[in-house]
Amino acid sequence: MRYAVIACSFIFLLISCAGNKKQGISGMPPCLVTKIDAMKNDPGVNQPQSVIQYNYKGSAVFYITSGCCDQFNPVYNSDCDYLGAPDGGITGKGDGKLTDFYANATNKKVVWENK
Fold first, then answer.
1. Run means of pLDDT, 10 residues per run, the chain, 115 residues
2. Calpha distance 30→103 (Å, rounded)
3. Which of 50, 66, 80, 88 is the most exposed place for a label (fewest CB within 10 A)?
4. Which pLDDT does position 46 carry in this prediction?
């Protein structure tokens, strides 16, 4: 009986880890996982949303596309600090805090998408 419980626990652990890798969420800061969960559960959003990881000035950052019109697309660092919005908003030019983002952001990797 004890071996059956251990085996089931091991299988559950493997399935849980595999699910995170499929979503690309493994290793992400917890606050971003929370933001993704909120995006998944927001019935009012009808536009595709995504979280894209970049390397920006030597650090991993996460760019989040907003669900709809005239909203900033925020960028967070791996400590969940808001860095700015390189685009979006009424003008489409962001909040002015990351004017060099697209010139310096490299290694684009989509880590989550809501299609």
1. 42 41 62 88 78 96 90 95 96 96 97 87
2. 28
3. 80
4. 67
Residue 38's pLDDT is 87
- CB proximity list for 59: less than 8 A, separation 6 or greater: 77, 78
Residue of 30, 33, 102 lying closest to 73 (CA atoms): 102
Whether 72 and 85 have beta carbons less than 8 Å apart is answered as yes
Helices and strands in the chain: count of H runs, count of E runs: 3, 5
Residues 6+ apart with CB under 8 A from 94: 72, 73, 84, 85, 86, 87, 88
Tokens 């493997």 identify what position? Answer: 14
The Cα angle at residue 80 between residues 74 and 81, in degrees rounded to 5: 70
Q: Is 112 helix (H, G, I), strand (E, B) or coil?
A: strand
Calpha distance 58→81 (Å, rounded): 16
3-state helix, strand, coil in the chain (%, to 5): 30, 35, 35
